[in-house]
Amino acid sequence: MQLDTLVAHYHEIGLKGRNRNFFEDALARNMRRALRGTGYLKLRQGFGRVVVDMKEDGDIDAAAERIARVFGLAYIGVGKRVDPNMDAIAEAALDLIQAEPFNSFQVRARRTHSAFDRSSSDINVEIGQRIVDATGGKVDLKHADATIHVELFGSACVVYRKRLTGTGGLPVGVSGKMLALLSGGIDSPVAAWRMARRGAEVELLHFHGQPFTDPSSIRQATELAEVLARYQLQATLHLIPLADAQREIVTHAPSNLRVVLYRRTMMRIAAALADEIGAKALVTGDSLGQVASQTIENIRTVDAALPQNVEVLRPLIGMDKQEIVDEAIRIGTYEISTRQYQDCCVLFEPRSPATRSNAGLAEQGEAELDIDALVGKALAGRETKVVELAPPTTA
Ligand code: ATP
Ligand code: MG
Question: Which of 53, 299, 304, 307 could link 41 by a cystine bridge, Cβ 3.0 to 4.6 Å?
Answer without folding.
Answer: 53
